[in-house]
Amino acid sequence: MKKSPFQFIFAETNAVLLEHSITLSQLEQINWQQVSFLVLDATNLSAAYAALVQLRQQALPQVYLRPIVFVAAKGSREGWQWQAADAVIEKDTDHAIDWSVWSEQLEGINRWIDTLPVIAGAVDGHLPVRLLRLLASRQIDAAPLASADICTGFIYPLLQPLFTKQDMGAIQMLAFLEEQRLLSPTLFERAHFCPHCDSAFLNFKETCIECGSQDLDVVELVHHFKCAFTADISRFKRGGDSLVCPKCDKQLRHIGVDYDKPSVVNKCRVCQHVSQDANVMAKCFSCGCSTETKFLDLRRVNRYQLTSVGLNAAFYGLQTYFTNILEEELQLVSLREFELFVSIETARIARYGKSQSALAIVRLIGLDKIHFELGSKSKQVFSELAGIFKAVLRDTDVVTAYNESVFAILMTETSKDKADLALNRLNKAVERLFSENLDRTLDMQIQAVNVEAELQVKQTLEQFLNN
Length: 467
Ligand SMILES: [Zn+2]
Ligand SMILES: [Zn+2]
Ligand SMILES: [Zn+2]
Fold this sequence. Notes:
It is an enzyme of class 2 (transferase). This is Diguanylate cyclase. By secondary structure, this protein is α+β, with helices and mostly antiparallel strands. It has twelve helices and 24 strands. Strands 2-1-3-4-5 form a five-stranded parallel beta sheet. Strands 10, 11, 14, 15 and 16 form a five-stranded antiparallel beta sheet that branches. Helix 4 (about 125-140) crosses helix 6, helix 7 (about 320-330) crosses helix 10 and helix 10 runs antiparallel to helix 11 (about 415-435). The longest helix is centred in the last third of the chain and has 22 residues, at about 415-435. The structure holds zinc ion (3 copies). The site of one zinc ion has 8 residues, from loops.
């Protein structure tokens, strides 16, 4: 079927740009196979942006992932909203727009949408998945932009339309996805935020360490050589420009000869306190709260790239994600909690010297490929795989997922030899599951070490992964 661009009509004032058009109420009836991209008249940017938000909030991936372009007259492109669209086409009054160029450029996105596993009637309610899909379909990073239009100071223009007021903000959501190892960060900027309202707009000011007043003067310090008296310059002033030492009553004539000015200090106009120090406070423009700078949230604002795990989750959703299924079967702990358990166990063993414990590591090689090969069926396979883990491990074992395919297990009261036996049992059961049911194999890398005083969990995991 030949595809063509469709104009999305969102207001009566929209200029007619294309013969094919569609309105909000028609989105569900249309055959999306004939739509190459959606065109919005962006003569009024904020109205066009609001319409784009309506589209990105739709449930069907065929709709919310569709390429969207703004068409506008030549002119300034100020405002991050311009960058929320996949492209901006300039309308030249003399020439007709060559739509076919854009169709070609944007077709890659449509092809990506077409590869999504089709699950009848399924809609994408899950915001993390929608976000990952938007990035994956465009093969781009989530790139932040500093903007005074938004109180958090930074915005991800392409992603922002996915969020409603009720959702957590884009910055928090991206940090959450980073924690899940679905995205990998590179630092864009470090910034301070108000701990009360997340605003980045802060007025930093020095305040008196005695009375808290912000009414400070920066004054010069004067040091009289002869008697060594030092005080702020106002104490030396005696009408006009002349300086007289309040201690020894001598006149100070020449700087460098009679006196010098070693530094500047803060003098409070309210309580007269003089000090080299001052408290730096930040007053928030948005909520009005004043916060000592050390209590501000200092965050890393990152650019984010999809990881291979993130790409999988973009295709198949997070429900079919092995770690999530394992989570239901076993109580997974975070890596930090796991390290804590190991250090407690190490201390316990060192203290009583009676027992042995083992750290076991399991890597399922090529687990991510199973997503691609089995699609929605992978959920069932992963459930069975999780069942094997549950059968082999004991309730007292502590398990963490280092990433989607590497798991660390603290086996208490278990020698390295016994741990090896358990890992072999796990390996055999997994082999059987794959060879008998799927006619393929899943390679595993396994290792067990004794829990000893010098054991560093992260280091051990990294070494294991590099082998
Ligand atoms: Zn004061
Ligand atoms: Zn003096
Ligand atoms: Zn605030």
